[in-house]
Amino acid sequence: MLPRLAALAILSLLTAIELPGADPLSEATDAFRKADWPKAAKLFVTAAEAESDNTKRAEIRLRLAQVYFLMNNRPKAEEALAAALADQPQLELVPELYTDDFLRAFARVKARTANTPARPAPPAPGAGTAPGTQVAIRRRLADAVDNTALEGALADIQTLENDTPPSSLPEVLELKAEALDRLGRSGEAVEQRGRIMALRAAATAPPNTPVVPLDALLEARRLIASGRPEDAGALMSGVLQALPSCVAALEVRGEALLEAGSLDDAATALRTAMITSEKPELWLLLGEVELKRGRIPSARDAFRRAVDLDPGNDRALAALGLLAARMEDVSTAREMLDRALNANGTLLEARVVRAQIALEEQQANAALQHLQRALQVKPDDPWVNGWYGVANLAVGNPSVAIERLEAARKAGLESFSLPLAEAMRRQGKVAEALALLDGLREAGAEGRMVRARCLLDSGRPPEAVNLLRELSVERQGSGRERYLLGAALHASRNWSEAATILVAASGLGGAPSTAREAASNAEATHQAQELMDSALVPPPSPPKD
Q1: What string of DSSP letters covers 211-222?
Q2: Distant-in-sequence contacts of 352-360, Cβ < 8 A, 24+ apart
């Protein structure tokens, strides 16, 4: 919002020239008084095109730029300033009448256009009203009340476009974009605006330098960020019509198509860009595209190529590490994630996945440190807090684990329900843990393991035995389930089978180191029980005389 004094200054400028009758300039001034900025902008454009005097036309375009500033449309404002300077290269501003932002924009545009030749003067009044001229077509557009009239105007614009030299083409394309917008063909309209921005960037670029349509690229990224990737892609398509070899436009178009879900087109755009510029960023984007297409090896190759081109690129290293973790290539994942985090410690997903690897490798304290660093980056992230709870459970701090895991679950992350139930069990909250497990739609084998532990803790070993027998059959090569089954059998006073199961568990992976000792204890208990049972056998009856 402009300061009040500056706004009043602009108003005084706008009211300085009043023309009799309902001409575009006086209508534009009236629209400005009513704060109808879109109408004012459109009418100032019309007034500028109808004005034959360069100096007056420059003043009108300066006012148009001020209106665009009030609309917070800086690219359009700078376009209007560039047009004003083309009409009057010696144009200067009175600093007291403008805001600092406007003065800085004017200085930027003037520096860019310092070496740009002035536009040729428009035809004399009356000459521009012939059918097929810009002024006539603009009037026709203004008078059009239905699609038939708009289609007719669009046909005339196409004819005019074919006969217009590149230096004057942007003004014709603006008419085309307006007609397409009114016909509801907004995607095509955005594409034409991309052409306009590219042509104007080419016109103002210094000789023998690459043309970079910065305004168009920034606008496309803004559209992507605001959830309009289709419009961003259309804008870049228009840029590429004017600048077919613009690598930056191909890159942004690929990004937009990726966001829009047009994966095949995104891959084509990125590979086209890499013909002339094999940048790491392009390989990174291509890797994301291939990942979404389900082509995992191709994604891995793309990320590897990005790392080869820029070994210190933290994003490329993180992408390769995360994909390796997904493919269960733990050594590559560990190496790449460590390199990425050494380059940039704020990479959130890389930090959390590195903590997950540490947990898998029984390095709970290292995982905790990684997650503490992640929380410094994003303290309220439910996913990070959930894994922080898991790490606290691993280091034996169930109270903190419960707090963080409950918060993650309340945020909708159901995957943290099982570690939460286990943390509750370890805190002695067995009933709450069982209630939580009862409410899960699908707990899987891990959920049944937690349930079996809860049943044992609550003095219900026969139920735990039934559950663990099923798990032992499903996971015959795992010693963890066998060991817990042996413990449940022991608690059920079935010492003979308990000893047999515990001996078998001690030879399998996943069983605790105490499995063989537990088997010996179960066997000793079994023998002691047999001895006690034999002691209770009554003596034989005495012989009869």
Answers
A1: ---HHHHHHHHH
A2: 352/383, 352/384, 352/387, 353/321, 353/322, 353/325, 354/321, 355/387, 355/391, 356/325, 356/387, 357/325, 357/330, 357/333, 359/390, 359/391, 359/394, 360/330
**What does the alpha-carbon distance between residue 161 and residue 158 come to, in Å, rounded to a whole number?**
5
Report residue 185 as tokens.
Answer: 């063909």
- Look at residue 4 in the predicted model and tell me its pLDDT: 37
Task: Select from 86, 112, 138 the last residue of a domain.
Answer: 112
Beta carbons within 8 Å of 284's beta carbon, 6+ residues apart: 302, 303, 306, 313, 315, 316, 319
pLDDT at position 116 over 60: no
Identify whether the C-beta of residue 393 lies closer than 8 Å to the C-beta of residue 424. no
* 416 and 489 inside one domain: no
Contacts of 295 (CB under 8 A, 6+ apart): none
Its domain, for residue 469, covers: 443-532
Check whether residue 401 and residue 487 sit in a common domain. Answer: no
271-303 tens-digit pLDDT: 988 888 888 999 999 999 999 999 999 999 999
Tell which of 385, 409, 442 closes a domain: 442
In the prediction, which pLDDT does 544 show? 67
Residue type, 379: P
> Among 219-233, 349-363, 443-457, which is the least confidently predicted range?
443-457
In this prediction, residues 399-427 reach a mean pLDDT of 94
- Say which DSSP state 166 is in: G
DSSP designation for 478: B
- Which stretch of 230-234, 392-396, 435-439 has the lowest confidence by average pLDDT? 435-439
Closest CA relative to residue 452, chosen from 413, 483, 420: 483
How far is the C-alpha of 221 from the C-alpha of 35, rounded, in Å? 29
pLDDT band at 123 (very low <50, low <70, confident <90, very high): very low
Domain tally, the chain: 3
Residue 499: the pLDDT is 81
